[in-house]
Request: fold
Amino acid sequence: MKWPSMGYARAKTLAELWSALAALGDGGKIIAGGQTLLATLAFRLSEPGTLIDINGINELRGISTNDQVLRLGALTLHADLCVDPLVKAHAPLLTAAAPLIAHPAIRNRGTLGGSLAYADPAAELSACMVALGATIITASAKGERRIPAAAFFTDLLQTALEPQEIIAAVEIPLTKRLGTIEEITRRSGDYAMAGLVATLALDAERVVAPRLVYFGVGNIPVLAAAASRALEGRSLDRASISAAQAALADDLDPPRDLHGPPEMKRHLARVLTERVLLGFLSPKVQAA
Amino acid sequence: MIPITLTVNGEKVMRHVEPRRHLIDFLRLDLGLTGSHAGCEHGVCGACTLRVNGKIMRGCLILAASLDGAEVVTIEGISESGEVADLQAAFVARNAAQCGFCTPGMVMTAAELLAEGGRPTRGEIREYLSGSYCRCTGYQAIVDAVEDTLRSRSAAP
Reply:
């Protein structure tokens, strides 16, 4: 249906944003790309008093690197992640993940910060940030906070953001770790029925510090500790992959949803585990 | 009411809009440009796809109020400019428009893919169009039309 009646204001700087938020109190709601928020307004899932448009705040833009991190401004578009050369060089996992988000027309408007702030449990970028060991940099009138992605997602659609606090940027540590993403959707561009992001290093073919993060199978991106432990120090082969699949039973407790019962999600998670881990092997090894 | 000044199909437009007005209602109801269709109005069907600042977007997921200074191009605009005349002819030749409701969104989306200048496969065309629903289910003919246009454009000198 049509959106509810509401107010609209533009903030051109962070200072303007803090004063607008202070003036509006609980009635103020941030809008960036609006690709999640405006759809929820059409369903009347929320009725904000006033939308505060942050698209004009340049402090929230930009993709840059230093010696240690790749920094992505909160207003980075999904379409930027698809093609940006710095992202491709330093976080190719995101280059691979971004095309899985919705469709071109949505990716041209939807933002990184918005996706993380809405914390949909099936969102690709949330899971990527946990797997990459990223830091979410928040900002408010009180200043900045740095929150590890693994602690940022607290419950279904809930994050560690305080009222009147926004995501300013994300920092991803520069490493030589490998990363890959796979998901299973009913239709291209849909939210995943189940998905997996994995990052790891290979040292003489042995797995070092793997992080398997499943999405669409719980209230938040699920860092599968037992499955990750089952791979640590082992070479990637049928035996270690089977061990990780078996260990998943301790990691996942998927809720029943529109797609099906928990056991179906567990099955999909095991299928993804094999696909993703085999993907790390060279074609020769994979064929063996 | 929020004052906005923007360009629509090359013409400067100044209006006052309610914050709850989305871009499609602004175009259809305030400007009388009814080529962009309001389908699901929550970002799923793609019938409202149009160009904002050179990139395709969902008109139903954009506040008109947020478009001060923006450049909007609709199906009327790219039809008049001739940019997609060949694609539109291919839609006719392939009978790719049945009821016609999804057609403006399909053409806007395919125009962006064609403008990228690559050589997408049939699968890649389908993937690019996957955010646009045709409830006549005429996908085969639509992909045919895009493929034909792609082929004739790459054959042209």
Q: What stands out?
A: Chain B touches chain A through 31 residues (CB under 8 Å). Chain B has a mean pLDDT of 97. The CA atoms of residues 98 and 137 of chain B lie 9 Å apart. The helical segments of chain B are 23-30, 75-81, 85-93, 103-115, 122-128, 139-155.
